[in-house]
Design brief:
The structure is a homotetramer. Chain A contains 17 helices and 15 strands. Chain A folds into 2 domains: 3-177 and 344-393, Rossmann fold; 184-339, Rossmann fold. Chain A is α/β, with parallel strands linked by helices. Chain A is globular. Chains A, B, C, D: Substrate binds at residues 53, 124, 147, 177, 181.
């Protein structure tokens, strides 16, 4: 049996929820129609490691409708929806993922997915890509696609060590991903995850955001929009200045630690909140992470330091510190918007997943041949995604007339002419 | 057995969650200490109809710690947490409430609560007060407390018909309730309820808020803070002008209907969204209510009109209309922030419930005697609540010095003196 | 010659600017048409003390068109526009006001205005009312109208001393004034005044607002909207809590003083920023006032403390302190939005001045007789103003249908019916 | 006499105002100290065309203190402050600029500035660079610096025609300029210019921003912050989607034209608001431009179409259209924040001008040799500016520890390790 999931009987519930996501993904719907008609992926095998959500299901169905053979594992053991897995198996994919699976199972599933000898790997955190490079050969793989900042960092490191064997398109680095999914998606789902895990009041709270990249600024904007007073921690001078001019207080973590009611990390770095910070925090402080890996908050240090721990609610654990104060960790320090909420809304995943679908087509079905290395999404794909989305939203844009096109191209026009 | 709840075995889980709420209710915690020491409510019976949440539990424990005998039913059949009921029964209260109970059960529970022959009724929607006035006598009741706008309207109607038999303090009309719970609490929990029920993207959406009272403006502010474009519908000219100057588009519902992606009612009025509006809506429109009663959206008309309905997710039902479009009703048109999320955060309920606790003390344990009618919370109680909260938050205020107090009292100081 | 102004030759420029204001005052324009047709003020003399701006001119023209005889002085020596005075004289009013006039001249002008033996005094700060009560008789005066909080305080003090001889309508206390002029008008013109006086960057600045009444919250909202980080100082616990939940930092002035880049007072109280605060401020701090009187910042103490002062730009004076730091006072500590900018925009003055025009009509031309004391604007006048404004803006509202009107009046409808 | 200015007697006033700007430019102040000590520019001649404001004066003083010989003309005839010119002449520079000078004078001044045979040209709109390339030789010029988007476009066009003779550093394209001056500076000064020119109420207004680049998004954010309802017009799909997700309405100009109360262009394109749009506008619409050149609003078409025009206030002209409506043009369609207000605040010019000062040093005083073409500001200069600014603001950042630096460099760390 070429799948390993919780319960195939969950398929009906999964299908219903996938249809709900598909409602909000008009760009993928349109691509699906095109692919279904043309069957461009006939005979192509895809190994996929993604958060297994309803939106991911819409992406995979889109590729599957175009003829692709797909094997799927989870990019994070906690973000898998078992009902979605069941629906995808019934649709004909090989799925190896169970919510909450332990580490050995997780690793076995990664290997099972790679065992289909894929033509393309689609990754979210680069676990497939890294695993593949531990093997002596990449088999039929001609290209990869990577979704996250963290995975791109890992893939770049492989490339700079001259180990990377094939081209990888970094979907994460594309404007459509940066601008939309990271900012608006992570911004909303971080708030959502915190509310579901704690039902805490954001209005009036002091909300510390570590990292002012696209995710961090999305989180900061939404926290402010919910009435919080936001403090930003950064290491980059230009980003720190931006945060300052946006009206946020900018402090190093050691100064923010005793002030915050809620802390969220979104840096891509490890050890951003450490023991020395935690011991300075107020009684009742909440700690959450929105970066890809669960290394941004030093959970190990927190567990060693605590004199007592207890689960308070789903995704909320209380740690009693030696100083008598309690701090609360959300979702084990994993991506709070995916663990405690439902990841980015379908309307945004539509954009980045449409980029993935078009990149897959570009890599497998066109004449373009990229050398090994990390590549950007070709700009024309990105612009096509934006245009399809605007069309679906019913938004018309201005266009340049002949006079304006001439002006754009010329340099003779000056102050007074 | 003087209780009727789902399962007493849920008590441990309930206690744990109540402790989490209590962490965020420092004002009640302080009152609890005072009441526990003084036992002011010894021999007093309280009949209570409230949303049975963890925060309500903290209020009732505070009164119970002061010696009160308490019987409790739900003010809304869908907002009851069964684990909280169990914990309160174990603490020694009479609880008659089961999540999702049918109407006959609900009515029986109301009667059982009144059967303790209370000295005071504490109400949320005036169901106890109205039921009591259907009886020939109110027994030992000397006063009531009402929590919501809707309940106040109903009680005022009783009073203007000269039927009201005892004084009722309208906790709802007090600044601490208006300003904080309605605005910041309903604002947040409406967003929270919509996200949990749908995981829809708020950024970029067109979000229609019907009613620009305190709840409505809280919802509008938070929707904007999450990136939505907000349209306000109002019937009051002054409120409509306020919404306009706050930068919201102001339209009558018939013009807003074809524009909105999400609709939320918060008016206290029935039939705000009617069949003629629904038939104008876009495919995919979401309908939610944040007013007390489930009458603001005409659910009956929606059900009669729909050619097909199906549940998509928890608290989300799809209605296919004769025109081929689908609209989606959240939480059956009941309070979305209570049905699909967890009602107002504890930090805010701390304020209005502290007002209730102090009002209970005022009505049962002091010399003050109010005539039958609807009364405001005495201003000194309200100010005491605010002061206790600021103290708990560690916020110090400026105070007037002698010179300033003189200035405040005098009229001789003019432009140039 | 029954006027005393700078230069009658400025009339043409004044007329042009008044027309610009009139463009944005559609409610007054409509009233003007009605009054011109009906001549309700024939034979009535009005003594007026207002900020002499283009918007004031539109109000007075409206009353003058209705037959009133008008004498006018300034409510603040620095806010007079000499070109407006000239235009009003040419229109046929008696004007006694010169921008920057000294105190003896100011007082003489107040007296000259009262010398017309008015039927009604229209005041802004209560200087006319107070001066009148220093006289043995109020002559023909039957009523007064007062525009500001400060004037209302002074008039109430007169009333509570049982000295007030006639009814005074407090235009200031009406929703249309509170909600709109104080919040949106003062909010904008305070920002405008600061920018014109300093051209300082608001983004990223720490902006301290003393007072969180309607003016203060307007200022705080706009400062935040321009990118500032806002700190609020308050003495009232409920208002302080509101500011906190709106996401502002709340501090007493002594803690805010060393943090602020910009300080604005809007309290109605004297000595809000005192020597001890000023000596704690950062080098470069800006001090401005948006309260009616120039007593909120202790300018006398500032001048005594400074080792050197020099004017830097119009409305900006540098005070070098003994500690070597410099602080900067805007507009001499007078209303910064009126001294350094142009007071509230015409579109808002349209509302409060329409209230004044309708109140004048109510007091002089109807059967209503109010006793001596301070009275609110009758609610029906206020609502009429709001309706006229909405109509001018082209905004339609929802209205209740028969079913809803019944619902509003009844109390029988409960949870499940 | 090697200057041509309004009046040398204005120098004292100019110096005082320049000192006020210098207070807010701590980065330049620090560079000035370094340059004064090291005299790196001894023997170097600089031809400068910039908006002649107090901030420009601080930049030029900084270079002059380092030994540079400077000749200066205006980059826009209307933005010159004559008192600043006088102060700079007294400081020893050659200044050829008079506020409001006519076109022949403006051109003569450009030529006089180039006549010093400069080593470096510092430009704002590329008028010097273009003029130089009309000459047969560039003389001693080894490099240029260009400040604006428009100038960069013109210079790039020269380069792509293979005509550009020397390297030009595009200060405009650097993060410090984009992120800060364009967004926060233009954002604020556009609002400021509109308020000074009109005193119109922004709250509630419908505010149309054409162009959602860095300037446009700064303007949109500030307009929203002042209470306006903002509509964005764009031609780029990705930018349009961003505006949509930020909650702005996105429309083509032809649909926005009949809705707007205020229109601001910030596109770099000509003819953005044309006759066909103007004829659709509401009576009273305001038209302003914040792009570099006065071509974005078709002023010629406006003047030809109008049946009557008159100046209403400074920088505000009324155009009566054949349809009976009036529209109002601010500042002749030139940069409204520079014509009607005072350009970007010193605190921001500190950043871009520090970049210019460091680029000047880089081009004239180091070993680096760039080829002809348009170059970015070297990243290390930009980062140095940001660091100096943060230091001046007293803001400390987090820094990576050894463990984190290792993590940053490695790729072995995965999900579960």
């Amino acid at each position: 049996m070429n799948y390993d999931i919780r319960d195939i009987a969950l398929a009906e519930r999964g299908r219903k929820r996938i249809r709900w996501a598909a409602r909000h993904m008009p760009v993928l719907n349109q691509l699906r129609e095109e692919f279904a008609a043309q069957q461009p992926f006939q005979g192509k095998r895809l190994a996929v490691s993604l958060h297994i959500t309803t939106e991911t299901a819409v992406l995979l169905s889109t590729l599957h409708a175009g003829g692709a053979e797909i094997a799927l594992c989870a990019s994070n053991p906690l973000s898998t929806f078992d009902d979605v897995c069941a629906a995808l198996v019934e649709e004909g994919m090989q799925v190896y993922a169970i919510n909450g699976e332990d580490l050995p199972t997780y690793r076995r599933h990664v290997e099972q997915v790679l065992d289909i000898d894929p033509h393309l790997v689609m990754d979210d955190g680069a676990d497939l890509i890294v695993e593949l490079h531990k093997r002596s050969s990449s088999g039929s793989v001609v290209a990869g696609i990577e979704e996250t900042t963290t995975g791109v960092v890992r893939t770049r490191a492989l490339a700079s060590d001259k180990l990377l064997r094939f081209p990888v398109i970094a979907v994460n680095d594309t404007p459509t991903k940066h601008y939309f999914d990271n900012r608006f998606g992570t911004g909303q789902n971080t708030i959502d995850g915190i509310l579901r895990a704690t039902n805490t009041l954001l209005a009036g709270s002091t909300f510390v955001v570590a990292g002012y990249g696209w995710c961090g600024r999305g989180i900061a904007a939404r926290a402010r929009g919910m009435g919080a007073r936001v403090i930003v921690c950064e290491i980059n001078p230009t980003r720190a200045l931006e945060a300052y001019f946006e009206g946020f207080q900018v402090l190093p973590m050691e100064e923010a630690a005793p002030l915050g009611d809620i802390f969220v990390t979104a840096t891509g770095m490890k050890g951003v909140i450490r023991k020395e910070h935690i011991l300075q925090m107020k009684d009742g402080a909440l700690l959450a992470n929105s970066g890809h890996f669960n290394v941004e908050i030093d959970v190990a240090a927190l567990e060693q330091t605590a004199v007592q721990t207890q689960e308070i609610r789903d995704h909320l654990v209380e740690y009693q510190l030696p100083n008598g104060r309690n701090v609360y960790l959300l979702g084990q320090g994993r991506l709070v918007g995916q663990v405690a909420a439902e990841a980015s809304p379908a309307a945004l995943m539509d954009l980045s997943f449409a980029g993935q679908a078009l990149s897959t087509y570009y890599l497998l079905c066109t004449e373009h041949r990229l050398p090994p290395g990390v590549h950007n999404v070709p700009a024309e794909l990105d612009e096509r995604v934006a245009q399809l989305k605007l069309k679906a939203l019913g938004i018309r844009l201005d266009t340049l007339n002949a006079d304006q096109l001439t002006y754009q191209a010329s340099w003779q026009y000056g102050t007074a002419e």
